[in-house]
Amino acid sequence: MALTLVEEFAEERIAVITLNNPARRNALSRAVLAALEDNLESLGKSQSVNVVIIRSEGPVFSAGHDLHEILDQNLQEVRTLFQQCAQTMAVIRRLPQVVLAEVSGIA
Fold first, then answer.
1. Euclidean distance between the first and final Cα of the chain, in Å?
2. How many CB atoms lie within 10 A of CB 29?
3. Contact 6, 16 (CB under 8 A)
4. From the CB of residue 8, how many other CB atoms can be counted at a distance below 10 Å?
5. What is the mean pLDDT of residues 64-70?
6. What are the φ and ψ backbone dihedral angles of 101, each rounded to 5 degrees?
7. Are strands 51-56 and 98-101 parallel, antiparallel or unpaired?
């Protein structure tokens, strides 16, 4: 699975989302972006979480967009992907919780 579902630590009021596809350098595929957005929106409604940490497995935090998904796409499909990414980043900015990126290695 490219994204570990949210782990919540109730006592500390922390939720951790883990990008978990080190073989692909945790690339942000459409599926990962959609799952990330869904999880973040859910956490945004939670009264039991004060902090969201986004982390990754492996030596690279994230290589960015999954270029294999873009190769055979037309211009409109690429625009749609970038809009999806921008929408996910907007969800992060709107969250009422503090959001931290636990980055180790190349980001």
1. 20
2. 18
3. yes
4. 16
5. 89
6. -105, 120
7. parallel
pTM flag (> 0.85): yes
Interior angle at CA 85, CA 79 and CA 90, nearest 5: 125
Query: What CATH code would you report for 3-101?
Result: 3.90.226.10
One-letter identity of residue 41: E
**Ordered DSSP codes for 8-45:** EETTTTEEEEEE--GGGTT-B-HHHHHHHHHHHHHHHT
Contacts of 48 (CB under 8 A, 6+ apart): 8, 10, 13
In this predicted structure, the answer to whether residue 87 has a pLDDT above a threshold of 90 is yes
List Cα–Cα distances, 26 to 29, 44, 62, 102, in angstroms. Answer: 9, 23, 5, 14
Distance, CA of 89 to CA of 24 (rounded, Å):
21
The tens digit of pLDDT for each residue in 1-54 reads: 566 666 777 688 999 999 999 999 999 999 999 999 999 999 999 999 999 999
